Structures are given as structure tokens and as C-alpha cells.
Amino acid sequence: MKKLLATLLSVVMLLSLAGCGTQVNEPEVPETRTFTDSVGRSVELPAEITKIAVSGPLAQIVLFALAPDKLVGVASEWDETAEKYLDTEYYNLPLLGQLYGGKGELNLETLLASGAQVVIDVGEPKDSIVEDLDTLSEQTGLPFVHVTTNTDMMGEAYRMLGDLLGMEAEAETLADYCESVYARTKAIAESVDKVDLLYCLGEQGLNVIAKDSYHSEVIDLLSNNLAVVDSPSSKGSGNEVDMEQILLWNPDYILFAPGSIYDTVAEDPVWQQVTAIREGQYYEVPFGPYNWMGFPPSVQRLLGMMWMAEVLYGDAVDYDLQSEVSEYFSLFYHCELTDAQYQELVANSLS
Fold first, then answer.
1. Does 49 or 88 have the greater pLDDT score?
2. What is the pLDDT of residue 337?
3. Do 152 and 181 contact (CB within 8 A), yes or no?
4. Where are the beta strands (DSSP E) in the chain?
5. How far is CA 286 from the centre of its chain?
6. What is the CA radius of gyration of the chain?
7. pLDDT at 52
8. Is 18 left (phi over 0), alpha (psi -120 to 50) or beta?
9. DSSP H helical segments within 86-167, as ranges?
10. 14, 106, 150, 213: least buried by Cβ within 10 Å?
11. Banded model confidence at residue 11, pLDDT cuts 50, 70, 90
């Protein structure tokens, strides 16, 4: 009997030790990780991120393409046209406000109640970006990160965001698309004699997007932007000029922003003195669910590139614009664009 008890005790001890050994060897899943953002800030983040907030409309557009189901809210309300393209669950996301500018400041109370694990800022870094994000992190206890991008860096921005969110494969698809469209557009721009052009906006059409501004990247790439001014505005409203200056520039082509004076210039005797108007070489930039040329200057500017190249240099373009726009809407808005929707988008925008 003693021998039997000793044997059983030995077996129990061995099983116990084996069990302990298994537990010791199990890899521990880290709860946090360190991420270095575009302005060199080392930010501690949850290892797995399922809920994100955005700092502004530019980031909203970029992140909606990559991770719509992770968004806990929007920085600015979608334009009413977005209801045609977006699922209701996205269109009705709560409003969080914006970090910089815009129509509403970031609502910290709403942000904290949203359950967001990280707040992501995308775009051109402000001079005070490091101080601003550090201060907000201290105030809220939430990590804030910045990812710098402009049109030619959009691919790398998506790769960084893919790393941040653990969505590398999805981000690579978007990154490849961005780089492909940009490279193709750049090749077109380098193969043509660029036209003299102005981008006009405002109720009177007397604001212009100045050359070498953050908002003029696509315009400068695909045209000879005549709007050379002393201090290019960093705002989407552009630089205000007068009609005399527009007559002096006398562009061969004009792009009018949505909501400007596209519908009335043909009957205006003053605007008829401009070559672009007199010869019918003026177009209204497509809008839906955002302005295709920017404002905010986000990834939808790829749509503006493809459209602008088609309008100005159709003979150098070897793609079908409708097919390209439909692919963009599928990738970035998760929407299958109908033929009727496409025709509505480009109603005043093609020859």
C-alpha cells in the first residue's frame, strides 16, 4: 500500500511539474507597444487597436478608406452628398470636432466618452504639432500620433498607418494604388506642354489657389499655375485677388471650385474678356462626397489628378475615367458607384 501511494504521489508531482512547465513556456501577449510617429514622438499604444478617432477631415478621409469599422466618430460632418455613397452606419457616426481650424474644436468630453484608444492626425505638420499633441495626451490620457503626408507621399502614409493599426496588407493595397496613380499622372505631366491655368473659387470667383501652396500640389503638377503671389495662403480659401489681376493673368483654362460662379460667367461681359471663358475652356471641379481637387487636401486629390489630366490632356490619357473613378470609390469609400452617380458627378466637368 505504501508503494502504491508513493507511486501515485510521484505521478501527481510529475503532472503538476509538467503543467507548470507548460504555463511558463506560453508566450505573453504584450499589452502595449511603442510607435514612433512622423515628427519623432515615441508614443505608447495598445498592442491591438480596434477603436480610433481622427483629428480632422483630412485624416477622416484617409482613415475611412483603411479602417472604417474602427472609427468611433468623425471630425466633421459628412456633406449631404455622402449619404448617396456611404452606408448609414458610417454616415451617422458621432461628431468629435477638429484639432486644427474648421467649424468646431475637438470636443474632449465626447472624445473620452467615445472609447477611442488613439487619436490620429494626418497631413501637413503644424509648427506647434509636437507641443500640441503632447499637451493633449497629458490632458486626456490618450495617445495622439501624427502621420505626415502630401500627394506624392500618400503611399508611405498608408504603410505607416497599416503598421500603426496592424493592417499591413490592407494598407499596402491602398499604398500601391496611390503610388500607381501618382506615377502615371506625373508621367502624363512630363509628356505634355502644360497649359496656363487658374483655379478660382469663392462667391465671386476672385480667390485663387496660389502656386507652391499646400493646396496647389495637383494644380502645379498638371498645369502652369498662373497664380503667383507674394504669400501663398495655407488655407483652403486661397488668396483673394481682383478682376484686374485675373485679366492680366488671362488663363487659357480655368477650374472653378464647386459652389463658385461656374454657372454665370458665360453671360458676364467682364469674365468674357478672359480667354478661358471666351473659348469655353472652363470647368467645374467635381464634388462628391468631397471636392476632388482637395479642400480638405486629402487622398481624394487622386480623383482630381485623373480628372484634370483627362480634361486638359485627353490625347495623352490611356485610361477610362469612369472605370478609374469607380475603382477609387470602391477602394476608398467602400461604395459601388452606379453609372447614374458617375454622370451626376461629372455633369459640369468634362468637355
1. 49
2. 96
3. no
4. 32-36, 42-46, 52-54, 118-123, 144-148, 196-201, 207-208, 224-225, 239-240, 253-256, 282-284
5. 17
6. 26
7. 98
8. alpha
9. 88-91, 108-113, 129-140, 154-165
10. 14
11. very low
- This prediction has a pTM of 0.88
- Closest to 87 in 3D by CA, of 78, 95, 96: 78
Tell me which amino acid residue 132 is.
Answer: D
Angle made by CA atoms 156, 95, 346, in degrees to the nearest 5: 65
* Cell numbers standing for residue 289: 462626397
**All three cell numbers of 49:** 487597436
Q: How far is CA 100 from CA 55, 63, 128, 146, 151, in A?
A: 8, 17, 11, 13, 20
Could you tell me which of 146, 106, 152, 143 has the C-alpha nearest to residue 126? 146
Helix axes 168-191, 301-312, angle to 10 degrees: 20
Work out the percent of the chain whose per-residue pLDDT is above 90.
Answer: 79
State how far the alpha carbon of 173 is from the alpha carbons of 70, 130, 170, 180, 320, in Å: 18, 30, 5, 11, 21
Q: Whole-angstrom Cα distance, residue 150 to residue 36?
A: 19
- Per-residue pLDDT at 172: 98
Length of the chain: 351
Cis before residue 286, ω within 30 degrees of 0?
no
24 pLDDT more than 90: no
The residue whose grid cell reads 504584450 is: 30
Within 8 A by CB and 6+ apart from 336, the residues are: 326, 329, 330
Check pLDDT > 90 for residue 304: yes
